[in-house]
Amino acid sequence: MKELPIEKCPIVQVFIDIRFELIDNKTANEVVGKLMPVISSTYNQFEALPINNIPENVRRKDPNLQYKPLFKLFNNNSSVQIGSDIIILDIIGSYKGWDDLKSRFDLIYKEITPMIKTNTRIGMRYVNLIEHRSVEYNIFDDLSLQISTKDFEIDLSNSFYRNTFLYEGFNCNLSLANKVNFESKNLSKNGSLIDIDIFNQSDIEPSKVSTLLNQMHEVEKKLFYKLITDDLFARFQTL
């Protein structure tokens, strides 16, 4: 499989999220307390999120409030969000490659593994933004994906496409858009979106998490390179 060097990749944001069940009624406060001594030198800012204003007994009864982080440790381009049943690691605008992302996650997960009874979902999401070559640029012309109808042609220049499907044994949410504005704390860009979210939703033993993440990363890469045309691959190489 052809691959781009990391500095040529159009990645603007990446996420790893893991949902779990804690043992012995452990709480998000205890998870934070376990992680703070290990990661506070990297994530030197702390925030209690607004959901903390909702009483815990109310949150537990409302399915819409399940898997919501309660606290955030962060720096200028990365954060770790922590709840009683979820952790989300994300990096914005300064992705250095899979080894760096995986080592960050491994450090976090190693500390909390003794507190986890089982994992119920693991997700990995890569957000790619392709800057336009001209005002007429259409990302759908540079993708292997075909969308057509029997009787007429569809203008995709202002389209947003989303689909959920099974790919290489994993669930996948794929989102494509030709014209978007990506805004974050330290990054603002206009362009076209290729958003790939790979996830496994089943009981996962803690000992299998690392292997599963490596597999998911390979699947995400394979799908990305299957989606883009040779012309777009060649264009990335010249950037």
Task: List the SSEs and their pairings.
Elements: E1 11-22, H1 28-39, E2 45-48, H2 56-61, E3 71-74, E4 78-82, E5 86-92, H3 98-112, E6 116-130, E7 160-167, E8 170-183, E9 188-200, H4 209-227, H5 230-238
Antiparallel strand pairs: 1-5, 1-6, 2-3, 3-4, 4-5, 6-9, 7-8, 8-9
CA-based shape: globular
Determine the structural class based on helices, strands and strand pairing: alpha+beta
Which blocks of ≥5 consecutive residues have pLDDT under 50?
none
Elements, N to C (H/E): EHEHEEEHEEEEHH
Radius of gyration: 19 Å
How many domain regions?
1
Q: Would you report the number of β strands?
A: 9
Largest sheet composition = 9 strands, antiparallel
* Overall mean confidence score, pLDDT: 90
Roughly what percent helix?
25-40%
Report on the architecture of this protein.
- The protein is of the alpha+beta class.
- The protein has one domain.
- It is built from five helices and nine strands, in the order βαβαβββαββββαα.
- It has helices spanning 28-39, 56-61, 98-112, 209-227, 230-238, and strands at residues 11-22, 45-48, 71-74, 78-82, 86-92, 116-130, 160-167, 170-183, 188-200.
- The protein has a nine-stranded antiparallel beta sheet with strand order 2-3-4-5-1-6-9-8-7.
- The longest helix has 19 residues, at 209-227.
- The radius of gyration is 19 Å and the shape is globular.
- 23% of the residues are buried.
- The mean pLDDT is 90.
Outline of the structure:
Helices cover 26% and strands 34% of the residues. It is built from 5 helices and 9 strands; from the N terminus they run βαβαβββαββββαα.
